Amino acid sequence: MSHHIKGQGRHQITLLPEALDDFVTEDNPVRVIDIFVDGLQLDSLGFERVAAKQTGRPGYHPATLLKLYIYGYLNRIQSSRRLEKETHRNVELMWLLERLTPDFKTIADFRKTNGKGIKNACKAFIDVCRQMQMFTDVIVAIDGSKFKAVNSKPNNFTPQKAKDHIERVEQSINKYLSKLDESDKNSENDASSELNATKLAWLRKRLEELKGIQKIVEQQPDKQLSLTDPDSRLMKTNNMNRQVCYNVQTAVDTKNHLIVAHKVTNTTDRGQLSSVTKLVQEAVDQKEITVLADKGYYSRGDIKEILDSGAVALVPKGDTSGADRKGLYNLALFKYNQEKDIYICPAGNELQNRFTTVEDGLELQMYFNCIACRDCSQRAKCTTSKSAARRIRRWVHESEMENMQAKLDAAPQTATIRKQTVEHPFGTIKMWMGATHFLMRRFTNVSTEISLHILAYNLKRMISIWGVAGLQMKFKELYQ
C-alpha cells in the first residue's frame, strides 16, 4: 500500500464554490488589473468602439480586451491564439473577463486597431504613479536596447549586399549557360538539359528581382531596405553581431525603477537623448529632472537643448578623435585657460582665439598659434600638416559641457547607478518575450507591442512596491 498523497477520483461528484470569485484570492494581481482598467476613461484615451452602436451584432467592450492583453503580457502570453486558449481554461481569466471567450482574430484586431489607446493607457498608468507621489526629485537613466524584428537578415539589403547577390547570380547564370552550350555541342537532349534550362530561367528572373531591389536600396535615405518589415534596420547588437531589429529607448526612474517613458527607433542612440528627456518631463509634469546616459548619447547639441529645458544631463564624453592611434597629441592634453581665453599646448605654447566659424550647425571658436607651431620641436607629434598650425576647435557653449564633466568626476558612482537602473528592465522584458522577435511589424504596431510590455512591467513593479491590497486601495482613492 502506497503512503503517498492520493488524489480524488476523476469521476467523483464534487460540490464546487457557488461563486467564481471564490477561486481568485484577495492578493491575486488580476484584481489590480480589473480596478486599473475600470478606472480609465477609454474613450478619451483613443480606444475605438467604447460607445456601442444600437444596431448590428454586439461587440466586446475595449476594457475586456485590454484586461486580457495586460494579463497576457504580465504572464508571458503575447500570442492572440494562446490568449484565446487561456480564456477557455484559465480560472483567473474567467474571473477577469466574466467568462467571455473572444476568438483570436478579435483579440489580434484589437491590438492592431487600438495602438493609440494602448500607448495612452501606458502613459495613464505613469500618470497614476505620479499622483501617488512616486516621482519626487526625479533622476532617470536613459538607454536603448535592440529588439529583433519580424525580418530575417537574408531579407535585408544594403548596396553592397545587393551587389554581391547580383554577382553570385550572374556567375551561376554563366555556369548554366556553359552547361547548355556543352549539351548542344554533344547533341544531348536529356532530362539534365531540361533541368539546366529551368534553373537558368529561375536565375534570370531572380537577377531581375535583385536589380529592382538594388535600385530601391539606392533610393533609401539610409541605403538600407527590409522586405518583410520595412521600418526595421540592420544594426549592431551588444555582442557586435548584426541583427535586423528596432532600437527601443527607455527612461527608468532610479528610485523605484519604473519605466517613465519609452520610444521606438531604428537608428543608433546618438541624437535620441533630447527627445526621450522631453517625454520624461511630460510624463512627470516637471522640468527639473536629472538625466543619466552613457557616452553613446553624447551630443553637444542634444545636451545643450536638455540644459535649456531646465533639466540636468550627466553624459560622459567618449574619445573619438583617433589622435592616439596616429601618434599625435590628444585634444585632452591641450588645457583651456578660461581667464585668458587661450589653450596651452603640451609644449607650453599659448594658442589664441583667432576667429569663429560654423561647422555642422555648431558655432566654433578656432585657437592656434602659427609662429609657435612653425618653430616647435614637437610639431611632428602635434599635426601631420607641413605648413598649417595645429588648430583647436572650441564650441561657444563648451563651458557647460565642462561643468557637466566636473559633476560626473565628482560623482564616480553615476555610471554604476545608470547601469543598475536601466539594464534590468530590458533584461526582464526580453525574458518575458522569450528567445523571439516582435510579433508585429512597422513602427506603429511595434510601439503598441512594447507599450504593452512596459505597462505590464510597471504594473508588476508597483505590485512589488505596494502589494496587491495596497495598490487596490490607492487606485480606489484616486478614482473616487
UniProtKB/TrEMBL annotation:
Residues 19-112 form the Transposase InsH N-terminal domain. It comes from the Bacteria. Residues 240-459 form the Transposase IS4-like domain. InterPro entries: IS1182_transpos, Transposase_11, Transposase_InsH_N. NCBIfam families: transpos_IS1182. PANTHER family: TRANSPOSASE (PTHR33408), TRANSPOSASE DDE DOMAIN-CONTAINING PROTEIN (PTHR33408:SF2). This is DDE transposase. It comes from Alishewanella longhuensis.
